[in-house]
């Protein structure tokens, strides 16, 4: 039996999974929508990954990352749970050892990671709101009646992107509606949105950072060619988008799972186990912590959110 | 020797001291370059340079300084702490000098107004005169001449502003910091729209400041920001003669966020609160301004 | 006439000395307002102007909760920024909500008006005596000093405690004792007894542990609820935390220290920048040159003085190649988002250290 390692990246919008071998080559990968239910998404993910995994492999490590990493880590009994910044950096470095700047725009978060000699030298994440992230882009695409997959292509056709105030989602949305009502062409509005996302990202997340090449762009939004084009235009650097750019977090966490191997073998049978979470306000003291209790097969296995340690 | 060239950003301080500075340097025979009226490029550049959460006016100022930085020998940035006890300024005015000093390499010509610690505008201006190589006496005369000339013009403008109260048109008091009201990208689009709607605009900054200072107490007794006192102090004077008030501030102005809220809770007139962010279009505001004007005109018709 | 009930906003553990002071100098009921919860913040946010800084919202929420529990006198302090102007608007908002109360503002128009405060206290309690108040004020300030001293020690070591919760437990015991102090001597005695105990608590602290300096806006620094228990999270990672701002610093040392900081960091700043902005710039330079692994700058959203200091802090950190992270807390910041950023920051400084 050959060892392999599973990395799961559970974002707010999409769930990504990869299985890599000892040399960190991808054996299997899968990408699906989270649909607001990370537990269910991971069950589907594992089912999909397991069904066509060659029989000669056995899973010797699981890592989880992304916004639901703790919950899923508990569920699959992961041997490592890490934040997505570190995971993305490790994943990207395995493909591009000399990368200097990683731009990442995902569903609800966007970040910049600066790498110096193979380690994270600096990073930042979006601060105030979700303007300029994937969820904003997809909701606007829906509003304009354009499938998100065609968004980038359409943006490339525009010669005069419309200016859109993009400091904040609410402002951007109202501005967008106005522009549409005024009769601007759709492709120019779409291009304007892509450009505003780039500018907003650089102003918010990239403030005060020196973005040196090579620059790698990843996360769901990196599949949007319009956004890539405006990044290149504004930064004056070539932007590398890997075909696996959406999987970098999962790859990174799978590598970390390999590094943290502890001899255990994972059968991947969690789809048969029932998982439940219950939220409740604790009334044991005046802190009123909002607790989240996690049950496996009706047995309480953990609870989070307690500030006083009563749980 | 070449004449020294002094850069004046057409932003924040310019709207309080611009005229004074120009006549001061003219008297001393120095060259002055003023940054152009705010345009998209200047504003965008400021937004790029500034910290994300700074108010739009500060971002704008940084854009103007960036425009000037390689076009002059000095950039004029005063630091203003207070004009006496209970006459302080927003902390941005305290910090501007050091922020600019750290962000730009162009030499700064600066003076400090801190009346509580006996540093006045007069001393400051004389000091920069001396720094430029003029004698104390020359600088003092230049300052006094400049004051004289500015005061005459200011008085005319104030009288004109007060005259407008007699107009039979719908009258709106526009309350805001002068650096927002008169900025090409911030207040100006709103002013021109109001003019187009045939509304008489009374400006909050064109009153005698001793009077507004005193009158502001009727609305807020605890207020200790000089510039906000001047803004809201105009309200008690004119509230019986106007039809509505428009508050104009930039996002997220610290003093305005509290003071305007308090005033809005106390006044009885119709009002509109406009908060400008990094907005490209006026479209959103036009609807709100239009309906506001409709409201006050309707009220006026009923009362007549 | 029935006795008045007086209440005040929370900030960390300082409700204990404030309670001590008020009960000793005034013949009134002193109410410690309910602890800040998400409900407090919801209430405060609902009635506050939109882009006011967060301490306004938190303290307004606390006032509403206190008034609901029949408090009728509220006390608010002030500071060198718009904090000084909170009082007038807050009392207007509360009046508009229909509450009846007396609002005592310790800082009016940016200055402490002792005469005015005296008259207001006299109105609440006609037997109020200045000399007695002075005596207890001195004891209370000593208490704050002791609390902060112990607190500093705890902050540096709690990440390494062998029995989880042992530090917090001992600290709470000390604070409970403090509230029963009879005078200077008894307070001094309690302080020594407890501090000795705390120092004896077992820790396993490596010689070169990771060290982080936490700087920023005062309220967010001192009220754990406002910074989403940031210091506790750092302690869990096994990090020694240095924080300068505490009540003792603000009340007694600040005036002197600011001048030192201005001199120390004179290549970056020449003037005070309002509130603690200049102090933080000086501290940044100090932390950069004294073997710290990272700086965390925290503030409430829209805190103007700190926003002004941020580009300068960033510049200093760039020059010294110092990792720095900025947090801007709002009433609806997500806890998960903060944890992700902190964890990544920890990974980063740890990797840098290993290298």
Concise synopsis of the structure shown:
The complex is a heterotrimer of chains A (311), B (304) and C (355). Chain B has 304 residues and is α/β, with parallel strands linked by helices.
Characterization of the model:
The complex is a heterotrimer of chains A (311), B (304) and C (355). With 311 residues, chain A is an alpha/beta fold. Chain A is built from 9 helices and 13 strands. In chain A, strands 3-2-1-4-5 form a 5-stranded mixed beta sheet, with helices on both faces. Chain A has a 5-stranded mixed beta sheet with strand order 8-7-6-9-10. Chain A has a 3-stranded antiparallel beta sheet with strand order 11-12-13, with no helix packed on it. In chain A, helix 5 crosses helix 7 (186-204) and helix 5 packs across helix 8. The two termini of chain A are 41 Å apart. Chain B folds into 2 domains: 5-152, Rossmann fold; 167-303, Rossmann fold (3-Layer(aba) Sandwich). Chain B is 51% helix and 14% strand. Chain B has helices spanning 14-27, 40-49, 56-68, 91-103, 121-131, 136-163, 178-181, 188-196, 209-215, 226-238, 254-266, 283-303, and strands at 5-8, 31-34, 74-76, 79-82, 108-109, 112-114, 171-175, 200-203, 244-250, 271-276. Chain C folds into 3 domains: 5-128, 3-Layer(aba) Sandwich (Rossmann fold); 138-205; 206-355, Rossmann fold (3-Layer(aba) Sandwich). Helix content of chain C is 55%, strand content 12%. Chain C has 14 helices and 8 strands. In chain C, helix 6 (130-157) runs parallel beside helix 8 and helix 12 (277-289) runs parallel beside helix 13. The chains are: A alpha/beta (311), B alpha/beta (304), C alpha/beta (355). Chains in contact: A-B, A-C, B-C. The interface between A and B is medium-sized, with 17 and 11 residues.
Q: Largest sheet of chain C, described in full?
A: 4 strands, parallel
Number of helices of chain A: 9
Considering residues with a beta carbon less than 8 A from a beta carbon on another chain, report the largest interface and each chain's count. Answer: B-C, 42 and 44 residues
Q: Uncertain runs of chain A with pLDDT below 50, 5 residues or more?
A: none
The H-and-E topology of chain C, N to C, reads as EHEHHEHEHHHHEHHEHHEHEH
Compute the number of strand runs of chain C: 8
What is the N-to-C order of secondary-structure elements of chain A (H for helix, E for strand)? EEEHEHEHEEEHHHHEHEHEEE
Question: Helix count of chain C, per DSSP?
Answer: 14
Task: Show unreliable segments of chain C.
Answer: none
Question: Alpha-carbon distance between the termini of chain A?
Answer: 41 Å
The named CATH superfamily of the largest domain in chain A: ATPase, nucleotide binding domain
Q: The CATH topology of the largest domain in chain C is what?
A: Rossmann fold
Secondary structure: number of strands of chain A: 13
How large is the share of residues in beta strands of chain A? 25-35%
Count of discrete domains of chain A: 3
Largest sheet of chain A: 5 strands, mixed
The structural class of chain A is: alpha/beta
